[in-house]
Write a structure and sequence with these properties.
Radius of gyration: 15 Å
Strand content: over 45%
Distance between the termini: 24 Å
Structural class: mainly beta
Number of domains: 1
Order of helices and strands: EEEEEEE
Length: 71
């Protein structure tokens, strides 16, 4: 089993807005401009004027990976 990013989102402690990046290059900022998220479910990228302003609300899940052997 391995961890997979299912939902890439964060909340700004300043304006309280919850923002979500929905696809790989979906760069989203909150309404006050304090925080931004990027990466969709491909990767997690967080930017902020002050990193203490971010509440990470991302959701991860267990994913079973099967590798089939060729004969």
């Amino acid at each position: 089993m391995t961890q997979k990013l299912l939902l890439n989102q964060a909340q700004c402690k300043i304006c309280r807005e919850v923002i979500q990046s929905k696809h790989r290059h979906d760069y989203v900022s909150c309404k006050c401009g304090e925080i931004s998220v990027d990466g969709g479910t491909s990767y997690v990228r967080r930017l902020a004027r002050d990193m203490d302003s971010i509440i990470d609300l991302s959701i991860y899940g267990e994913v079973k990976i099967e590798i089939k052997k060729e004969r």
